[in-house]
Amino acid sequence: MFRKLYDWTLRQAASPRAEPVMGAISFVESSVFPIPADVIFVPMCLARPERAMRYALIATITSVLGGIFGWYIGLHLFDLVARPVLEFYGKMAAFDALKTSTGEGTILLMLVTSGLSHLPPMKVVTILSGVVAFDLKLFILSAIVARGGRFYLLAWLLRRYGAAITGFIERRLPLIALGLCLLLAVAWYLLKH
Fold first, then answer.
1. Nearest CA to 44 among 154, 121, 150, 118?
2. Whole domain around residue 7: which residue ranges?
3. How many Cα atoms occupy the beta-carbon half-sphere of 73 within 13 Å?
4. How far apart, in Å, are the Cα atoms of 96 and each of 14, 73, 86, 112?
5. Cα 143 to the chain's mean position, in Å?
6. Residue 134: phi, psi to the nearest 5?
7. Quick one: which of 60, 73, 141, 148 has its CA closest to 107?
8. Interval 10-65: pLDDT, tens
9. Whole-angstrom Cα distance, residue 54 to residue 72?
10. CA quadruple 99, 37, 151, 63: dihedral positive or negative?
């Protein structure tokens, strides 16, 4: 099933309706969809580098809106919508573990790390944020910074270095994202203490 979804998103990157499809994928990826928007975002930026920043804007806006949707699912529809989705993806145990160990600082850190690196998955964090009634304004701000930072950085790198950077990004993105997350965690700790 995942391979079919992945192949479908790659086909959409070459279609005339690529922007709306990318926006839709970016939206649902933040709350229920298993495949990140990167699978369509990266090929679109490589195919039309002059539009990379436009694509980053679309992906950021739709991802933040999708995150808000996930937050509302968690707040109002957890048992009806979120629980079946989390059980379907086998993420219920991870969700329960996160829920029991969260405070405001932890949620904020998870929002940033999931926005930058998909660790933990964005859909889990957005729903969890709603379940614990995390401040919506702070949620939106952190989502804009994290998701916008990710998409704009990818767009800039792809626009500047093109296909040469793609292999580098694909091989090292988890390490790059982990490094950024560690820097953010250290900065957060230093600000708090």
1. 154
2. 2-192
3. 23
4. 39, 16, 10, 20
5. 9
6. -60, 140
7. 141
8. 676 777 888 998 999 899 988 877 778 887 888 888 878 888 999 999 999 999 99
9. 27
10. negative
